[in-house]
Write a structure and sequence with these properties.
The mean pLDDT is about 90. Helix 1 packs across helix 12 and helix 13 crosses helix 15. Strands 5-4-6-7 form a four-stranded parallel sheet, with helices on both faces. The chain has about 375 residues and is α/β, with parallel strands linked by helices. It is elongated, with a radius of gyration of 26 Å. The protein is built from 15 helices and 16 strands.
């Protein structure tokens, strides 16, 4: 029996702009093939008047609390302030405030700047940060919230409703990719079944993919794919928001970490892999491959599509017409016969798939 990595045979698409290589490396180590199609890119606001105005407003008076949401964003803010000649003034304001860090990377950025956090939630979630502030009481306080690429309306509005003055710090923003080709091809791969999972690390990436699908008339197909054969995995509930709004089910790790997200993708794909016994063999379907009696078998796309159609109802006779529909790009009866022949060869013999004369084909499922 050959040792098979948990994600061997699966193709996973990555839409992330930041930490894409890290996530890809984790998935490749588990055996996956990875396709990259950044749905967004980060634009620093180093010279942006909006960031300058927000920083100047913060410096007008003491600030009671500062919420830092990302390490890269916090460092970018300090670098921008330094470039404007406001670096020392900003650090002085921050050192006199209560600093709340969303997670360990932000904590590291704070400490690298000579600052120290007063609170960091174990869950690394904005929701727990908000609850901590509200339970401490914010009425009359002046609070700065460093944004992470998009507005945080619920977070900010809740603080304001509780009586706080909130200064939003827009350190960088998400925009579309310079070259939309890779993400466009990634979307095609989701629709044609050649991509088996899409892990998302940010809400903007999910929203950008949805927007692309909507603009190009592919949104119904995307929703159908992510609601069925393709696993949609999100690092947390905020990231899942754009998909949840469309009714797309997602899987999420218990902790909002890249490593946990990769494990969740692996566990979900393995759990969803069909397993059956047919023709005296144990068979597990793996993306674009099959494991037969513990042995790895490469299967071409057309034969694999037919194997999936047959395995959807093990033992049932599937007509040639149904199998033609299952073929990538369609075809005719001869194409089905050719693909069945190649499938039998890939699986190591002709006993797994039976021909039922004048009716179609079936898997010879063991009793």
């Amino acid at each position: 029996m050959t040792d098979v990595l948990p994600l061997a045979g699966f193709v996973i698409g990555i839409t992330a702009a930041r930490r894409a290589d890290e996530l890809g490396a984790l998935l490749v180590r588990k055996g996956a093939s990875v396709r990259y199609g950044p749905a967004i890119r980060i634009v620093p606001l180093t010279d942006d008047t909006e960031l300058h105005a927000a920083t100047s407003r913060l410096l007008e008076a003491p600030v009671d609390a500062v919420v830092a949401t990302t390490g890269i964003g916090f460092r970018g803010w300090l670098e921008a302030a330094e470039g404007w000649g406001l670096g020392d003034s900003l650090l002085a304001r921050l050192s006199a405030a209560s600093l709340l860090a969303r997670g360990p990377k932000v904590t590291g950025a704070l400490r690298a700047a000579g600052l120290s956090e007063s609170y960091s939630p174990a869950s690394e979630s904005n929701a727990e940060l908000l609850q901590h502030l509200l339970s401490s009481g914010v009425d009359g306080l002046r609070i700065a919230v460093q944004l992470h690429g998009e507005p945080l309306p619920y977070f900010v509005d809740t603080l304001r409703a509780a009586g706080a003055e909130v200064i939003e710090i827009p350190v960088y923003r998400w925009v579309g990719p310079v070259d939309p080709g890779p993400v466009d091809r990634l979307l095609d791969g989701v629709l044609d079944g050649s991509i088996h999972a899409l892990p998302f690390t940010s809400a903007p990436a999910a929203a950008s993919l949805v927007a692309l699908a909507r603009r190009t008339g592919r949104l119904p197909g995307l929703v159908a794919a992510l609601s069925g054969p393709v696993v949609a995995a999100c690092v947390g509930p905020i990231t899942a928001g754009p998909l949840a709004a469309l009714g797309v089910p997602t899987v999420q790790p218990h902790r909002a970490r890249i490593g946990a997200l990769a494990r969740t993708v692996a566990e979900t794909l393995v759990a969803r892999s069909p397993r059956l016994r047919a023709g005296g063999h144990s068979i597990e379907l793996r993306g674009q491959a099959a494991i037969v009696d513990g042995e790895w078998r490469e299967v071409a796309p057309a034969p694999m599509a037919l194997l999936r159609a047959l395995a959807a109802s093990p033992g049932r006779v599937v007509s040639r017409r149904e199998l033609i529909s299952a073929l990538p790009g369609g075809g005719e009866e001869h194409a089905v016969e050719t693909a069945i022949g190649r499938l039998r060869t890939s699986l190591g013999g002709g006993k797994v798939v039976q021909t039922v004369v004048k009716r179609g084909y079936r898997l010879a499922v063991d009793a």
